[in-house]
Amino acid sequence: MWFLIIAPQRKRQKAHDQMLKELKTGDEIVTSGGIFGTITNVKDDCFVVRIAENTKIELGRGFVASKVPAKSGE
Predict the structure, then answer these.
(1) Domain formed by 2-67, architecture
(2) What is the pTM of this model?
């Protein structure tokens, strides 16, 4: 029973943690609130994210939902 319920969740959590470790300046992300932005600075416990022209926010690492895949042809 444990294997069917807990193991897939642990696998997803490990993949998410690995993605957070690999994020760097210039990566495009989506926050857990659905905001798209580009990382401009990586700090120990947060990211500085540009969400619009002349608008930057500090975002805790745990609030990054995913990295936006690179578009082909770029």
Answers:
(1) Roll (2.30)
(2) 0.82
pLDDT in tens, 6-64: 888 999 999 999 999 999 999 999 999 999 999 999 999 999 999 999 999 999 999 99
Contacts of 69 (CB under 8 A, 6+ apart): none
Residue 62 to residues 13, 31, 71: CA-CA distances in angstroms? 11, 9, 25
User: What tokens does 6 get?
Assistant: 């807990």
Every domain of the chain and the residues it spans: 2-67
DSSP letters for 18-63: HHHHH--TT-EEEETTS-EEEEEEE-SSEEEEEEETTEEEEEEGGG
